[in-house]
Amino acid sequence: MKPEFRPDPVLKDVILIKPARIGDARGWFSETFNARHYAEAGIPDDFVQDNESCSEAMGTLRGLHFQLPPHAQAKLVRCTRGRILDVVVDIRQGSPTFGQHTRVELSAEKGEQVYVPVGFAHGFCTLEPDCEISYKVTAYYAPAFDRGLAFDDPSLGIQWPFPDQSLVLSNRDRGHPRLSDLGDVFPAETAGAAR
Ligand SMILES: Cc1cn([C@H]2C[C@H](O)[C@@H](COP(=O)(O)OP(=O)(O)O[C@H]3O[C@@H](C)C(=O)[C@@H](O)[C@H]3O)O2)c(=O)[nH]c1=O
């Protein structure tokens, strides 16, 4: 059965997806990815790597991350255990929504997904202990091209669900530059045509 696809109300190129679940006496079944259905909905991407991460503490923040071209990644993200607040920031120079972000709650219970196109930074904060995230990406991990954006950049104005001092972050995620210091990472011509 086809999922429900809808554009994010703030960032129209971000797509919110609700896969169907078919229930019976045993429980339920769900297609979590179907290349034909996703292509019809405007996600024709070839995903080449599947990732999973587990965060033990509630209030763990990973992000905001992106890879630079030519290793830029689109991502299809879901939460497979627990509940997270997922955050996506438009960092495409010249985009009408440059610097704007959207926040979406994802839970294992509901099975929602977020499609993050190329040209956006991505991160999340766990809302429960022991959360597992699974996501597909369209380019292989390329550490030399891996970059970050400061989760607490005041110009982004992101409301994280816990105070900064109680968040659990890697050292790397405490040191990312602000948006104004990123430079032209995704040039104007990628805006609007990022997927
Ligand atoms: C992302 C990644 C990391 N690694 C390694 C590098 C490091 O030793 C270890 C942990 O890496 P990180 O700290 O970057 O993991 P993490 O902070 O979970 O990074 C992820 O964050 C979320 C928000 C995203 O959007 C992802 O694209 C990715 O950047 O895993 C890989 O081997 N392959 C990968 O694809």
TrEMBL record:
The record marks Y141 as: Participates in a stacking interaction with the thymidine ring of dTDP-4-oxo-6-deoxyglucose. Its EC number is 5.1.3.13. One of its GO terms (molecular function) is dTDP-4-dehydrorhamnose 3,5-epimerase activity. Pathway: Carbohydrate biosynthesis; dTDP-L-rhamnose biosynthesis. One of its GO terms (biological process) is polysaccharide biosynthetic process. Keywords: Isomerase. The active site is at H65 (proton acceptor), Y135 (proton donor). It catalyses: dTDP-4-dehydro-6-deoxy-alpha-D-glucose = dTDP-4-dehydro-beta-L-rhamnose. It holds the Pfam family dTDP_sugar_isom. The keyword Kinase does not apply. One of its GO terms (cellular component) is cytosol. Transmembrane segments: none annotated. It is an enzyme of class 5 (isomerase). Homodimer. Belongs to the dTDP-4-dehydrorhamnose 3,5-epimerase family. Catalyzes the epimerization of the C3' and C5'positions of dTDP-6-deoxy-D-xylo-4-hexulose, forming dTDP-6-deoxy-L-lyxo-4-hexulose. This is dTDP-4-dehydrorhamnose 3,5-epimerase.
